[in-house]
Design goal:
Layout (H helix, E strand, L loop, with lengths): L4 H9 L3 H12 L1 H6 L5 H8 L3 H13 L3 E3 L5 E3 L1 H4 L10 H4 L4 H8 L3 H7 L4 H5 L3 H6 L2 H15 L2 H6 L9 E5 L5 H9 L4 E6 L1 H13 L6 E5 L12 E5 L7 H14 L5 E6 L9 H11 L6 H10 L2 E9 L3 E8 L1
Parallel strand pairs: 3-4, 3-6, 4-5, 6-7
Antiparallel strand pairs: 1-2, 7-9, 8-9
Helix pairs in contact: 4-5
The structure holds S-adenosylmethionine.
The site of S-adenosylmethionine (SAM) has 20 residues, from helix 12 and strand 4.
Amino acid sequence: MSSPPWSQELLKKSDLITPMAIRVAATLGLSDHMAAGAATIDTLAHEADVDPVALDRLLGHLVNAGIYRPLPEGGYEPTELGALLRDDVPGSGRDWLRLDGPTGRGEVAVFRLLDAVRSGTPVYSGLYGKEFWEDVESDGALAQAFARRMAASMRWVVPELLAQGDWQSVRHVVDVGGGSGDLLSAVVGHIPGATGTLLDLEAPAAAAERDFAAAGLQERCRAVVGSFFDPLPAGGDVYLLANVLLNWPDERAEDILRRCAEAVSPGGRVMVLEGLLDLQTDQTDLDLRMLVYLGGRMRTTEQLRELAANASLSLRRVVALGPVRSLAEFETA
Ligand SMILES: C[S@@+](CC[C@H](N)C(=O)[O-])C[C@H]1O[C@@H](n2cnc3c(N)ncnc32)[C@H](O)[C@@H]1O
């Protein structure tokens, strides 16, 4: 007996097999193995070091999901979508999806969403024995994969940010929890004579130094290792907080804003760059991820304004920078 149509829609929306099958393919590097010439189940199973019968069944489902297609002579090749699981293509999703990467590990914690909703607290550490950032930081490759991917997701926001006027009088920019050096390089590179300091944990800070050198900005930008819960490098005209506050619950996010308020030069600005739930209304999935991974949350403009007011910062303006992120600009109250 076939299920009624409402049930089919519900089952499709709640499917876990297809997303996991795609992530398993990404983890095993199946599209990379195919690009390198492996096509048959036996060669693919050998390259990926997996059970051939189970692999055949996985690929069977991924053909249905539009990720691979069978070849007339036997074996498989990636579709256009499946090719994006390759490591070496522009727009590759492999780093983001693989189950042994930073966000893949986070997504596995989503299986414990029920516990997170019951307790209102993150579940990541219960699964892996460490808090999310401690876990990422403890593995240089994870930290760099994360920073690289974040930088890619920010790349298209940068021109919109730079178009938001008022940059030419800025002398020093501090990128707090800056991750890769990409954003700071773009901002400092846009303002003649300006300098920049990026503050982050050890692995991202080391990678950022390399980014500054690659951008030819090693004389103007430096990375410092530190915590944004401690006093920040003082005297910047602009403090950037890109995709940082949403990682933290209110009292911790307020502490970070307070550290910025204490450090910023008189007349300077604190710029929060992240999605706001009243402007980027469809980002509710990210909001739940923040709960599961970190105990953080996305906020509305009003919630962010209140948090910043407690940290002696007043909201100057809010501008949506496309569908995913906003700029909320603050000055000392
Ligand atoms: C979501 S990432 C955002 C990175 C970057 N701002 C961007 O938008 O691409 C959050 C950053 O916060 C850093 N971080 C986490 N805890 C920190 C701490 N206590 N002090 C400084 N940085 C921290 C992480 O290493 C990571 O680079």
